[in-house]
Each structure stands twice: as structure tokens, then as C-alpha cells.
Design goal:
Layout: E1 2-3, H1 11-26, E2 32-35, H2 41-52, H3 58-65, H4 67-82, E3 87-89, H5 92-95, E4 97-99, E5 108-111, H6 114-121, E6 125-129, E7 132-134, E8 140-142, H7 148-158, E9 164-168, E10 189-191, H8 192-200, H9 208-217, E11 221-225, E12 233-236, E13 249-253, E14 256-265, H10 270-280, E15 288-290, E16 298-306, H11 310-319, H12 321-324, E17 328-332, E18 335-341, H13 351-361, E19 368-372, E20 375-381, H14 385-395
Helix pairs in contact: 1-4, 7-9, 8-9, 13-14
Bound molecules: adenosine-5'-diphosphate (ADP), aspartic acid and magnesium ion.
Length: about 400
């Protein structure tokens, strides 16, 4: 069982979580629980680290931001004791949850489950702080924002759990963010592939890496609410879906910025020079469009980078100006990427054109497009985010 930040926000809610855990245990299950920090706490801790220094050492940043989950793990164990349920907390280094050394974006490599399994077999509920692990240097690491989902799936895989239940503040995975589109529909099931694409293009209900891991380790993941008892959404293999919808959902992402490098010489190797310089600076480029040469001999290249890396990217390009030989660099941070995802796209034509037409009819201009086998993404002006999501939700017949 994994409980997110809203579910852990305050002692009253933690008591509610303890009651849910006690009920599962009373039903005869051995339970391990992964907890997030209280809602808003990780943001607060990140703020402290940034205020201390924008260039905070990543290992020390992890020491700071991993602390939120330590607090909630201890509190839940105490609440379980108070409810008469034997329990103990297992911090990342105690289990141990071994990760890579990439502080602040570490990946779990191995979980040592011997001691925790013995403790669970003896009747004690294991309470594990999400988001944290221990690096090869013996220091605390964190898994990137939203990482408690990944902690939960990794622990479920390591324990060979029957299921990994992700309790959150919505009662399942919807056709789009229910906070933006009230007519969004809850999905009873969604395929791993669709969930993976949706997560990677912005549906933050599950961290992308957690879905990747669930798919690889064949963990049965269920998303459900901490606050009511309605059935949630089960993430399943494609063969388990009875009636396949064309589109599973619509997602948005406002974390990218657009950069246009104009007046680039239209010759082999130039694109490599642009993206090589960015890659050397560890900037992750997402969408890329290279325009046709409208002035003889030169072309324009437009792409997106994480907004947090816009300044760095501009700096890198300025330094590489002579090597690339462009005329100008312009940027726009007020953009949003809107995506539609569905495995039905593999066998149906016209999915993209429905999207372009629906946006065009509302006067929303498309600045860049990318596609994969089961996804179409467009870049638009940020101010139209909600409108675009709603219009597409209707255009694909997803409205409840
Ligand atoms: P937690 O703290 O429990 O991990 P998150 O805030 O990380 O919760 O994720 C849950 C949120 O994800 C919901 O409140 C909802 O606004 C958002 N969300 C975005 N897309 C979707 C979707 N397609 N279905 C359900 N929730 C979504
Ligand atoms: N507390 C961490 C975060 O806010 C991890 C999580 O909640 O999943 O990113
Ligand atoms: Mg989350």
C-alpha cells in the first residue's frame, strides 16, 4: 500500500491511513506500506535548499529533501501502534534500498528484503519512507519528484507482492486530469503502455519510472482513493483489455520551454552541433522540428527543453554560436505540450487530424508536433492549456 502526500497531510489523515492498513491486515494480508511526505512538505524542503544556494550540492540536497518521508514513516508507525497494530519503520538505508549515485535523480538497483520479510512474517507491518534510498557511497539518495510511486512498485516487486495499491487524492486514473476537466471519466483498466505514455507526457498520477518498473517486473498496480471506497483503476497487460478504446486519455505538460535557433547553415552536421552542445550540458531535449530552408542555404531548428534548463540552454547555445554558425536564438517559456495517448492508434487512421482540426477550429495554433506509435503531442501557447485539453477530450468522445 502506498499513500501519497495528501493522504499523509496531518495526524488525522495519518490515523485514517492507519485504519486502512489495519483493515487490510485484519483481512488476512501481510502489508508493507510506502509513504510520501505530507503534501507541500517536499516543496518546502526544496525551497530551503534553493534558498541556501541555487547551486546546492546534490548529495546535501538529498539529505534535506528526503527528510519529509522519514517524518511520515515514523508517524504512521506510531499511529499503527496506537490502533493496536504491530509495525515498524524501515528507512532507505536500513532495508536497504540500494540506488545509483545520481543524487536527486537516483534509480533503485536492489532492495534487500530478508530482514523486512522476517519482520512481516512475524506480524509486523513494514512502514517504508518513499522517495529515498542509499547510494554506493553510503549516503542518502532521492529518486526524483513523485518518486514514492517508484519506491512502492520496486518494493512490491522485491517482496513478490500480490498487488501494489497506490492510494492518492483521486479515485483512479481518469481520461484526463479530473481537476481540469470535470467531465473526465475514470478508467476501470488501462494498459501499462498507455499509462507509461500518459505519465511521461505529464499525467502525474503515477511517476513514469514506476510504470516502467511495474511493466518490467509484472507488478499489478491499482490506483485508488485514500478518501473513499470506490473501485480504482487497474493497470493491466493489453491482453487483459476486453474492449479497446481508441484513445485512453489526454495529458498536458507546462514544464517545457521552446527555443528556436534561426539562420542555421543547411548542411550536414549542424543539427549534431546544436544538440551535441546541449547534451554535453546534460540538457534533455524533447520535441524537435527542423524547418525547410526558406532562405537559400539556411534553416531554422525549433525544440523544447525543460523550463528549468532554459537559461542553461541559452547559455550553452551562446557559447557555441561560432561553432554552429546560426543567426539568432529566440525562446518562449509560455508554452504547453498537449498529448493524446491510445493503443488504438496503431490500427486507426485519422487520429492526428482529429486533434489538429479540433484545435484549429478553436483558433489554437500548433507550434510543433511529435508522434510515437501510440501518442500524438502538440506544442501550443500556455494560455490555451485548459481549453485545448477540454476540446480534445470532447473531440475524442471521452466526456462522461
Ligand atoms: P500523490 O501525492 O498521492 O502522489 P499526485 O498529486 O502526485 O498524488 O497525483 C495525483 C494527481 O494527479 C491528482 O490529484 C490529479 O490532479 C493528477 N492527475 C493528472 N492526470 C490525471 C489522470 N489522468 N487521472 C487522475 N489524476 C490525474
Ligand atoms: N515527496 C516526494 C515529492 O513530493 C515524493 C512523492 O511524494 O512521491 O516529490
Ligand atoms: Mg505523486
Amino acid at each position: 500500500m502506498k499513500f501519497g502526500g495528501t493522504s499523509m497531510a496531518g495526524i488525522e489523515r495519518i490515523r485514517g491511513v492507519a485504519a486502512r492498513v489495519a483493515a487490510e491486515r485484519a483481512a488476512g494480508h501481510e502489508v508493507a506500506v510506502v509513504v510520501s511526505a505530507m503534501a507541500g512538505e517536499t516543496d518546502r524542503l526544496v525551497g530551503f535548499a534553493q534558498a541556501a544556494s541555487p547551486l546546492a550540492d546534490r548529495a546535501e540536497y538529498d539529505v534535506v529533501v528526503a527528510s519529509g518521508e522519514q517524518v511520515t514513516a515514523g508517524l504512521l508507525a506510531i499511529a499503527l501502534h496506537a490502533a493496536g497494530v504491530p509495525a515498524r519503520s524501515w528507512l532507505g538505508w536500513q532495508l536497504a534500498i540500494a540506488t545509483t549515485d545520481a543524487h536527486s535523480t537516483a534509480r533503485i538497483e536492489d532492495i534487500d528484503t530478508d530482514a523486512v520479510l522476517a519482520s512481516m512474517a512475524a506480524g509486523s507491518v513494514a512502514v517504508v519512507p518513499g522517495f529515498q534510498g542509499i547510494g554506493p557511497d553510503g549516503r542518502v539518495t532521492t529518486l526524483g519528484r513523485g518518486g514514492s510511486d517508484t519506491s512502492a512498485v520496486a518494493l512490491a516487486a522485491a517482496l513478490h507482492a500480490d498487488r501494489c495499491d497506490i492510494y492518492t487524492d483521486v479515485d483512479g486514473v481518469y481520461t484526463t486530469d479530473p481537476r481540469i476537466v470535470p467531465r473526465a471519466r475514470k478508467l476501470a483498466t488501462i494498459t501499462y503502455e498507455e499509462m507509461l505514455e500518459l505519465a511521461s507526457v505529464g499525467a502525474k498520477v503515477l511517476q513514469t519510472r514506476s510504470v516502467e518498473l511495474a511493466m518490467k517486473e509484472k507488478v499489478r498496480v491499482q490506483v485508488l482513493s485514500s478518501f473513499n471506497d470506490t473501485p480504482g483503476t487497474l493497470v493491466v497487460g493489453e491482453d487483459e483489455i476486453v474492449e479497446q478504446e481508441l484513445i485512453a486519455g489526454v495529458a498536458y505538460n507546462r514544464n517545457e520551454a521552446k527555443i528556436t535557433v534561426a539562420g542555421v547553415p543547411d548542411r550536414p552536421g549542424v543539427v549534431a552541433a546544436i544538440f551535441g552542445a546541449l547534451a554535453d550540458a546534460q540538457v534533455n531535449v524533447d520535441m524537435i522540428v527542423q524547418n525547410i530552408a526558406y532562405v537559400a542555404g539556411t534553416t531554422d531548428v525549433t525544440f523544447t527543453v525543460p523550463r528549468t534548463e532554459l537559461a542553461l540552454s541559452e547559455d550553452v547555445l551562446a557559447k557555441a554560436k561560432a561553432a554552429i554558425g546560426y543567426a539568432t536564438v529566440t525562446s518562449d517559456a509560455a508554452v504547453a505540450k498537449i498529448s493524446v495517448v491510445g493503443v488504438g492508434m496503431r490500427s486507426h487512421a485519422g487520429v492526428a487530424v482529429t486533434m489538429f482540426r479540433a484545435l484549429g477550429d478553436r483558433g489554437i495554433n500548433i507550434q510543433a508536433i511529435t508522434t510515437s506509435e501510440i501518442k500524438v503531442s502538440v506544442l501550443i501557447a500556455e494560455e490555451y492549456t485548459e481549453l485545448a485539453v477540454r476540446v480534445l477530450h470532447t473531440a475524442y468522445g471521452l466526456d462522461a
